[in-house]
Amino acid sequence: MRQNVWLIFLLAAVVVFGVGGALVLSLNAPGGGIEYRQEWVRALLQAGLIAVLGVVTSAVLERFKDALQQRRDDSKLRFDVLTDLSRHYMEVKLVRRKLQAADAFTATETDQLNQIQVLVELHMRNSVRLFRQASVLEAHLKTMEHYLNKVANEPSSEERREFLSKGFKVFADAFENAAMLIRAEIAGR
């Protein structure tokens, strides 16, 4: 913003100097012919026009560059969300395999699932503003978060029973839908 203020002041100074100089030369005939004044007036007006076009072009290019950088930053943040969610999905898979081998929940696995649940909830609250289909993504992340909550904290829930025996289809489907949505936005679709 500060740079734009300086550009505006520079533009105003060039315009005032160019137009003022042209006006002074037009009004004060220094004893020469009319061609002399017309050439100076034309030269000063051209210099002012070039300066104005230069400042406007610079401002437009700077705005374009900023918008492009913002798109790159948003895309990187979206990619980071996808990477984190993929890592959390794999961590849930590993916890499930460990539980299947032990055939019982322990405090360690409950803690791991609760940590993953909190991280998914954090993404649900913080990163959905990055996406055009924020409400759809939020619904998928909420499904993942609620599923992990029931598996970790409700021993008699259907989700916990199925987690060990049938798998975690609800969680996996929500993850796949969220990942597909994020990939589409990263690709610009």
Biggest β-sheet: count, sense, barrel? none
Average pLDDT: 83
Q: Choose one word for the global shape.
A: rod-shaped
Radius of gyration: 32 Å
Number of strands: 0
SSE class: mainly alpha
Instruction: Give the helix tally.
Output: 6
Weakly predicted, low-confidence segments: none
Distance from first to last alpha carbon? 32 Å
State the helical fraction: over 70%
Relative strand content? under 5%
Following the backbone from N to C, one meets helices and strands in this order, namely HHHHHH
Secondary structure layout:
Layout: H1 2-27, H2 34-102, H3 107-126, H4 134-153, H5 158-165, H6 169-187
Helix pairs in contact: 1-2, 2-3, 2-6, 3-4, 4-5, 4-6
Describe this protein's structure.
- The chain has helices spanning 2-27, 34-102, 107-126, 134-153, 158-165, 169-187.
- With 189 residues, the protein is mostly helical.
- The longest helix has 69 residues, at 34-102.
- The chain is rod-shaped.
- The model has no long low-confidence stretch (mean pLDDT 83).
In short:
The protein is 86% helix and 0% strand. The chain has six helices and no strands.
